[in-house]
Amino acid sequence: MSGLIFAHNVKIVKGQDLVETVLAAGNYPASASYIDVSKTERFHVLVHWGTIHASDVPVIEIKATTAANGTLASINTTNCLHTADPGDDGEFVTFTIETKKLAEDYHYVSAVVSAVTNGTYADITFLLPETEVPITQTTAVLPAASQHEYVG
């Protein structure tokens, strides 16, 4: 019987480097580092809120462009945008986006954060189930020594 080995089937890409860094309004990851999703049929974005400052109402919108440093455009503000509030501390937000629904040649994505000015924290992670497996993980994000399987 076979099954999913997560690290072999889903590429993990960080939106920002350190979860303990206060979010600033901007793109995660930044321009010139937008994430190429062209090898996926769909991709997922997982946002884990840390402490949300009582005066912030943070917004996260997944946007796309044609190049790693291109101009980002909205995908769909109903399904690709989330507004949180200070009571959402510790909660998760998920986005699943079908790559073929992106505008033609728009294969680079970023999470755009706004309405954070007072000290809000979150971890933003992109999960890319690429079409060719096994997937090679970026060793700075998920080194081989950190991949554990107890299967068989």
Report on this model:
The chain is mainly β and 152 residues long. It has a single domain (12-130), classed as Sandwich (Jelly Rolls), CATH 2.60.120. The chain has one helix spanning 6-9; strands at 11-14, 26-28, 35-36, 42-49, 59-65, 73-74, 81-83, 92-98, 108-114, 122-128. The strands form two sheets. Strands 2, 3, 5, 6, 7 and 9 form a six-stranded antiparallel sheet that branches. Strands 1-10-4-8 form a four-stranded antiparallel sheet. Strand 5 and strand 6 form a beta hairpin. The longest helix has 4 residues, at 6-9. The chain is globular and about 50 Å long.
Please, what is the oligomeric state? single chain
Count the helices. How many?
Answer: 1
Shape type: globular
- β-strand percent reads 25-35%
User: Could you describe the largest sheet, including whether it forms a barrel?
Assistant: 6 strands, antiparallel
List the helices and strands in order.
HEEEEEEEEEE
Query: Termini separation (Å)?
Result: 8 Å
State the name of the first-level CATH class. Answer: Mainly Beta
Q: What is the correct CATH architecture?
A: Sandwich
Low-confidence stretches: none
Secondary structure tally: strands = 10
* Structural class by sheet pairing and helices: mainly beta
Compute the CA-based radius of gyration.
Answer: 16 Å
Q: Roughly what percent helix?
A: under 10%
Mean pLDDT: 95
Supply database-style keywords.
single chain; mainly beta; Jelly Rolls; six-stranded antiparallel beta sheet; 3% helix
Write the layout of secondary structure elements.
Blueprint (H helix, E strand, L loop, with lengths): L5 H4 L1 E4 L11 E3 L6 E2 L5 E8 L9 E7 L7 E2 L6 E3 L8 E7 L9 E7 L7 E7 L24
Antiparallel strand pairs: 1-10, 2-9, 3-9, 4-8, 4-10, 5-6, 5-7, 5-9
